[in-house]
Batch of 2 targets.
Target 1
Amino acid sequence: MQTRRAPEPRSKRWRYLTLGAAAILVAACSSSAATPSPSVAPSVAASAAAPSTAPSAAASPSPEASPSPAGATVLTVFSDWTGGDQQNLEQIVAAFAKESGIQVELSGTTDFLPVLQTRIAAGNTPMVAIVPRPGVIADFVKEGLAKPLDSLGVDLAGNYNQSVTDLGSVDGKPYGLIVKANDKSLVYYDPKRVPGNPKPATWADFTALLDKQAATGIKPLVISEKDGWTFGDWFENVYLRTGGPDKYQQLFTGKLPFTDPSVSAALQTMLAVVRNEKYVAGGLQVAQSTGYNDGLAMLFGTKPTADFYLEGGFTTYVVTSSVNTAIKPGQDMAFFPLPPIDSAIGDQTELGADFAMAFSDNDATKAFMQFLAKPETANLWGSMGTISPNKNLDPSKFPNTLISQEAALIAGASSSRFDGTDQMPGDLGGAWEQTLQGIYADPTQMDSLLKSYQDHASTVFGS
Amino acid sequence: MAGTPRSRGTSRRWRRWSGTLFVLPAVALLAVFLVYPIFSTIRLSLDTGIFLQLRKFVGLDNFVNLFTKDRLFFNIGPTGISGVLVNNVLWLVLYTGGCVGLGLLIAALADRVRYETAVKTIVFVPQAIAATAAGLIWLLIYAPNPDIGLLNAGLKALGSGPIGFLGNASIVTYALIVAAIWTGTGLAVVILSAAIKSVPAELVEAATIDGASAFQAFRSIVLPMISGPLTVVTVTLAIAAIKTFDLVFVMTRGGPNGSSGVIGYTYYNETFEQGRGGYGAAAAVVMLIVVIPIILLNIRRFRASETAR
């Protein structure tokens, strides 16, 4: 029989103990370093440094009496960055504030689109935004929100090749200024695990290299398609090399349907490698549930288990800053460009970039956009490992050999195309990456998935 | 004086006015923060709603597209029906059922042991953890790398290959629901445990003397007497299941291939990622329609217990 007991002191002690444990748990979770989820960086006000007063100046100069050319305007800058990239931008902004005396309010989040759209809808539009997708810039231009760069007095011709300006142009008018460019066709490896400076010249050489590493008893290729964009980049790289740059451009701008036979042919070529049980590190289940950072940890973590990873040049920075700080670029980490697949189409490079765009044409915005296009700014950025496509850039500023090599590859590319999904309007690119995940899970569904994606894409492109 | 008709009239009138006066602030707040947003969302769902603004009236197009053209929302395929709506039904049944079932079991069993507080505290701790943190914890538990993931480390010790819990379309929703049950059971335990304690011990004692087994006494005496709190817990958790979002956002972002999406995530993704405010609002209206019957049920129960008093 059951009786009710009076609360004992023992149970009270328990309560405190467990409460304490809970508090520790919560604290431990919030300080967890390996956060795969996006985080919002707090707004950092890079307030303008007070202009240094000349020693001969009269006593007690007011620090508030700074000669601000734009009056009391505070420049608002929003970026799609967090972490290291955002810290670099803080330095750029600080240099701008020092030079111009304009106060800057900087914020950033990798979830840039939701935040940016909400801010615009709420009438709190930032004056300058840094975004990674030309497709998004085109959407803003369509809404009449973006200001063209030529109306802001930016010296484009003096600092950029026309092909670079074109990447940020909508209907022939320049809107996006590239502040950071990346080669997205790089296969990363650890020279200690894969010796002999491999540089496969053909697709057969590449698969032979995979076979050679697989023969040592490991599964060499890391696929991390839980983050759909990494898988999207795989497809773009393969399609660029099998369909060619012209079809590539047509496909991602709505002029060629995804049901075209060239798409399924490219997918077959790609799946033969990325879905090959012999190659895929950990097997298909692991590939499907591993994200970008965890995937890199399989190569460059403290206990590496695999050898190759295809991604953009920003990987150098991500690995050395957040995956494993002990990694030395060039020594523990190297890359080769993904080789051509079809010799008739030849060498191809996929590019990615972040663009600065203006929502305002006030003086502070003009001054900042002009500042971003300067060679000195490009050099400052270069010294932090960010590659600017400014043609007056001094390449000796780059901090390590991998960045120099990447910059040389971008500059010397015989044929390059911009990241396809990033060119698409809205989140059509995200939907494509989801479709690719579906095809990876079950290739027999390829045709129906391609058809249903195309139905969706044609409604978006059609409108 | 108090008995004159005149003063009775004033006081009655005053009472009527004062009532209105006291209710007014609450009504104003509800109107601004609840009624207006509901109608504005309904209006938005009939528009393209680009940038959350009314741009172009499209009638019921958004709803028609949700149910007939959106493969990820609702799809009748060769392998059966799938999509966000199906996932939400799974959440409704498994999450609510799991939390209430486990909660009832733990509350009833803990009531019979000496270390009850310890058990209840352990089960309740996840309630004190932010959903984002809970999502991160479970991301690590499910991680495919046996050096990181607890479950795959166990599978490896048993000699089995890793399972990609969050990368496999056929198990991802179940994996998310398990994580959610871990966070939600505490609430059920605390409320049901308090309810069980309010059942007079004499009743159970009397039943036991009459020869009822512990289970019979629980089923025929305790359970009917806690039916009120039980319904409250069930309804609360059912509504939470329908509007679930945080774990999905943190752990899978609706992936892979949209297979773990829920209505709340569709709303967020369409409105803020894709910029289609009208389409997102349509998903939100669908959610509202699904929740209404549950709320009505709750109100009816509430009324019934009011009149019973």
Target 2
Amino acid sequence: MSQPVAPVRHVLIEGNKSYHQISEDLCVPTERAPSREWIVAFSIASAFTALYVFAVVWTIWKGIGEWGANRTINWAWDITNFVWWIGIGHAGTLISAILLLFRQRWRTGVNRAAEAMTIFAVICAGQFPLIHMGRLWLAFFIFPFPNTRGPLWVNFNSPLLWDVFAISTYFSVSVLFWYTGLVPDLATVRDRAVGLRKKLYEIFSFGWTGSAKHWQRWESLSLILAGLSTPLVLSVHTIVSFDFATSVIPGWHTTIFPPYFVAGAIFSGFAMVQTLMVITRKVLNLQEYITINHIDSMNKVIVLTGTIVGVAYLTELFIAWYSGYIYEQFAFYNRVFGIYWWAYFGMMFCNVVSPQLFWSRRIRRSIWWTFFLSIVVNIGMWFERFVIIATTLARDYLPSSWSYYRPTWVEISIFSGTIGLFFFLFMIFTRVAPVVAIAEVKAILKVAGDQYVGPKARKGAHAPVTTEVTEKQQEKI
Amino acid sequence: MQHQDNGIWVSVDDLNREASFLKSAEQEFLLDELAEAPAAWTPSRRDFLKLMGFSLGAATVAASCEIPMRKAIPHVIKPDAIVPGVANYYASSFVNGSDYCAILVKTREGRPIKIEGNTLSSVTAGGTSARAQALVLSLYDTRRLKYPGKIEDGEVKKLSWKALDEKIKGQLQLGGNIRIITHTIISPTAKKALGEFIAKYPGTRVVTYDPVSHAALLAANEACFGVRGIPTYKFDAADVIVSFGADFLGTWVSPIEHARGYASRRKIQSLGNPAMSRHYQVESYMSLTGSNADMRIQIRPSEMGAAICTLYNEIAQKTGAPAISAPALNEKAKAALKKAASDLLAARGKTLVVCGTNNVMEQIIVNKINDLLGNLNSTIDFSVLNNLHQGDERDMMRLIGEMNAGQVALAIVWGANPAYELPNAEQFKAAFAKVNTRISFSTILDETTLLCNYVAPTHHLLESWGDAEPKTGHYSLIQPTIAPLFDTRQAELSLLEWADSPNLNRQDEQPYYQYLKSHWADEMKAKQSKYATATAFWDMSLHDGVFEVPPAQRTVSFSPNVALNAAAVTQPGAGAVEIAFYETVNIGNGQYAHNPWLQEMPDPVTRTVWGNYLCIPVEWDGKKKMTGWMGLEDGDKVEVEVKGKKHLCTVVRVCGQAPGTVAIALGGGRESGGCGVGHGVNVNPWLPIEGGFIQYFAKEAKVSGKVGAEKNFACVQHHHTMGLSAKDAESGQTINADEQVLAYQGALTDRSIIFQAHVNELASLRQKMAEFHKHASHLNEQTLYPDRADYFGTGLKWAMFIDLNACIGCGACQVACVSENNVPVVGKNEVGRHHEMTWLRIDRYYYGDLENPRVVYQPMMCQHCDNAPCENVCPVNATNHSAEGINQMAYNRCIGTRYCANNCPYKVRRFNWLDYTTADTFPANEERLFRVEEGDIPFYADNLVRMVLNPDVTVRSRGVIEKCSFCIQRIQEGKLTAKRENRPLEDNDVRTACQTACPTGAIVFGNINNPQSAVSQAIKKQEELAYQVLEEINTRPGVRYSAKVYNA
């Protein structure tokens, strides 16, 4: 009989890594010269970022009229993209905070990248409330600051103002959490670096020495931040959903929006994490840290949240019918069979039908299926927001004002540009910081007898540990 | 109580007479700190640095930000009448060919900026039209001719007036035939001037035609009654109205006057006795008048003669008159006309049959019908003739012959544009070229002026003196409200100058003014006895703007010598597709095509802007689809061929367009002169001429299938129906058609937007509305928020009432709103993208039978909700509620998130998508609106055009939301007036622009907390028919509508 697998938990990092090996594996991507793939990909991302900058300057210079929005559909791709990106930004915090509190230790393989993704997604999202303003240069009006304009204050009734607070809070806490986690790792990089590089990392690692006191404070801070972030995961998208739920427009004015939005956000966030992780682990050769088990676990979250979202869609339709309220009924009828029917069916297929494939263990553990479906889910979630925003506005109360919306090249450029910006930032991140949390991974390394190589070492020490897990054990995990 | 003698105490300190309080109370303003002498200031090093830093920074900022400099030069000597900030109103008249309106011109700081109706006129009675409202903008048209000159290569080579006069006088003295081509002239003094000119040059003849002809009506009246004139039609006295293609509310004869009379019989006088007239309209296309009709009788244009004969025969049968052999008519129309005939006969003497065709025999038969019905001298009054249409195109045709024969030596074109307006414009152009000297008085370089040798540009109407006699005994004065902007000269003066008139005092500063005044002293004063002196009479007439003489009674009888000849009426055509041509309320036959306000005013029926569109019928597949004829969609391009001439036309689907017919408006495709160039197609060459009269239909039109689609099809309304019914092909049952189309029952007709019912079903309508109101109230009571009735229940609370039965959809209010509130013009492309900026729009919904629907117009503007959805979603409090119930916009605070516009259930908020007004921070991004030629500056960038802006209303910059403010500037002015005069606010102190523009009094505005105010009274009168749109969503609108009632 080979080495028995510990019944407490099975191994999370494969390859029978030693502590040094982990430092090597995870620090090297920041130290070696960029690969040709990285350079090509980075150039493309930079080009899209440049397109983004151009389209945004164009919008500011010429006016919002360069977009396809109109007197009836005043929000379209702008807010669709905003909600989409904010949704994507939910996985990071969920993985870091909630899974930390729930002691899901498998999270360590992906939490760093997911948190980074969160921050970059929120950066992308945060652009839209700004650039969709008619007068961006007066954006500071949305902050409640003492001013010389008499007793002029912001409107605390407005969900848009709540958005300002929700998103800025979420962004600050996410950045803090992410950076706190980074500090010991940056110190590791620092210790390996020389010259100017060493000096810079010295600054960024805040003089981390690895003393017990440091570790103790670090642990406490991580826990506190996790505690702070946990409600944020729920609150941010709840507040974003209030942008719609507190309006009087049928199709927006629904009480189901907060839970529905949160589930959708986690759903899309995990899908985006999958997209990124599948690429990253391959490109940076981290298959042993971000294992099939991670992908499997995250796919389970996707199928769960996808199903919640599906239930929410059906509930909406039911409530619209049950309400007996003609405007609501028509709004949902129109959503399904109206002018944008293709967007609704696209959404239904991508968000509700496609994740059901993940009930199959084989698909769940297939890299290609995962990659493909994660993209499908993200397309579906984009459709969801478009359906909610544009379809609803296009057919509201007064039929005389009904209209149709088509994006212009400016909006398409801005959207594809934010995707470029997102990858631009993420790729820089992979070059300057370890994409997997070194310190945290080391903490979950299995350092039992299998690592022991001294006298009376057991036979098979240092041999690769089997990762085969029985169904029974799987359930325990 | 020891302090009882102390009337007021402001705090406990006061009550207790604390010493410190008493000390401070001595000072009215608490300036202790400031009152102290400041300590001597000893500058420290830090202070020095602070000052240095600030001054350097400030200097840098100031030096780098270039602020555009605009000069404002004060008067050296202030003119008496001009008080900055105070408007002056001058009575004047809007006269342009066949259009007349008595107006007041509002001027601010010497600039005319707004047209109001003159309530003293008994013709228009304070009503206006869209055309009249847009008058001020044409004054500031950048393409106006700026000096006289010789025209070479399409350009005006400048000449001095003296040089021009010499040249023209030289030509005039050569002798030969002189022809003056005009539209109808209704000015007695201008006619006198013309008389002098003719006396001087006896070879002169005035040739008059109208842009849209009424010549057959004149000819028929001459034949039947011996009076070559158009009588007064008393729509207010008519219980039953039958109109054969006469668009009497929009364009026919005297629409403002007709609209008022008509609407007075459409408003529900009392619920028990509605006393509503019944209106039949026989037509092929959906005209503005037809859209208001209770019953439309659809025919092909060529069946008009048959329809008239059929009605005649029905009437003749009952009145014992001889029948005539009517041409074939479709069965549906026959049956409907039978019903019309019985209605007419039942109300003999109180009915009115009018006819808009240009066929003499048809008009004669209609006259006979009126005779048989006893309408002559009752609803049709020849005592007061309408002078607005005196033209006769046959005269024009004769002139073309003369010119071709080389018999005309000199031609003067005055106000007319035959090179565009005539169906045979090509012939005219060829013949006109044979005239030796061609002179134009035009204010712009239009198609005809381009063909002239000389142009002697006349003043704009608002710079002119003049008079008018639109109807017998109704005189009206025109006075200038601004000094001439350019080196122009009034046409009358040019004529008198060239005629060497002895009656003209050339030394006078304003010779024509003296001429006019002396004419009034000589001719007009004698018509009255109220004023003894000519000066008093003149002053009062000028003040009032109108002078009316009671008419002498004239009764007419149908001449027994006139024989009815059914063979002379239009015979039904055999063509597969017939086409009708019609005049729109905004563009006319192109006379108004260069006015951006009118171009951007959506056509009341098609809701399209900037051009003319081919109206095609809508077909019902019997199940659940409404399709355009031949499967065409709105915005598709088709090739239309009439009389062998082809045009690419853009299609718009119109419910109520008769099957097998299409229609297109006149006035598109202008080639020269202004912003109308390049919009639409010129259909004048398609108009047939029969018996010398221009016909406004063609019996055969070839319409190709779809050949393309217009890129920026500009239509402000995409959905058009509100409860159309149709027959289900299988079951034969009447079903709700537009909900079939939307595939959803209850989607439209159950919405609380329009309530409509038959006049006989008012009781059930009232019950339905009461139930709805109860339901809505129940829903609205489920709120956590306290009722604010006490808050709004005291003081002023502004509200509006709109009577949908009186609203005819003419659009005067919309243009008035644009004019009053500096609403920008955005151009066709932007309207096509649904970026129009109109604060007030008139929603048009079809209801009733799908194949032959009725129409309801609903003016829709900000509803000023007391529980406004827009207000609570603005993150920066840019929109909020006043204590007087007004939803206010603070433009400076708006950052343009547009959440308010999304959350507005009425979709009345407008966002400045681009820099439409050139009020933006960055001047580089101003939208070129008209894209006519390179180098065009944006519409509002020109200082000349900017003169039209109302200085009381902020010009909004890019990126902010705007919307109807209930004319807050007028409210403020009214409140101040009342305050200054130390009296309570009265209804007349505040009247909104839309309200004053309305010719039918459909809009009432005022303080609803005053039970005596007009708005309270109007709502009270309509108690059970008044409703708030979307009441059940608890927005609590300040605007109420009345249910639409029809009398079919």
